[in-house]
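So, can you check?
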Amino acid sequence: MSALPRHAAAQAYPAHPVRILVGGPAGGTLDILARLMGQWLSARLGQPFVIENRPGGAGNNVATDAVVRAPPDGYALLVVALANAVNTSLFEKLHYNFLRDIAPVASLVRVPLVMEVGPMVQARSLPEFIAYAKANPGKIAMASAGNGTSPHMAGELFKLMTGVDLVHVPYRGSPPALTDLLGGQVQVMFDLMPTSIELVRAGKLRALAVTTSTRVEALPDVPTVAEFVPGFEASTWLGLAAPKNTPAAVIEKLNREINSGLADTRIKARIADAGAAPFIGSPTEFGTFMAAETEKWAKVVKAAGITAE
């Protein structure tokens, strides 16, 4: 009998539209992939899954805070990202405890970053850029999607491992950072591949390297950073989470439908075309993964002396 309410909750859900909160602007990687999965869930579950952009703050903090405070009924979901793991150690005081106050629903994708320069930068390879940066310490601006975001963290790891002095310039998401990269106001960026790949393919930005340990199928001719900086690896990830105490039956239903979407041929093709890869797992596996990522990037925050801006 104890299983009946749980079963009924799963059967009834969703009974009205569901909000998916994205901690970045429209057109960013979080937004692109959230809309792709939102469309799938809408078709599968018969209710609109509405994307709600909540940029601002640092990283994913504004959107995360809103979901943490939402009723635990499955009608407010959060696109979680590497920034959530980083912010745990970056900020001394948050209104929430990320690992304690959210319930993992499903992992979505693993996303490489691409190290790219604007058209006014003369360096045409990663070794040339490193030499250029060492000859001009403190004079090269490195854009990011915000303090503590994966583009920022990848850049800080690069600085630590190469000894170059780049000036970090945070933006509110990738789109405005890319605008200034194209215009020459900043010179280099480690950006999530889905946001930048078309600009690279069109020749508007020059890709020097990708940040994963192996080359990426979407840009097969672009080397990895590790080919020149041994041991370098940085990639981001995205998933969905809900407020803590969301019914397990609702989480299980969402996880099952999301994993079905990630296995769908058409969605897999769209994810691959954007330079990402499906990341399928259970809620428990995703929770374990997020805890490990939180520990990993805390070490980079400490070593680089990164503070909240």
In short: The longest helix spans residues 283-304. The CA atoms of residues 99 and 291 lie 7 Å apart. The beta strands are 18-22, 49-53, 76-81, 102-117, 140-144, 166-170, 188-192, 206-210, 235-243, 277-278.
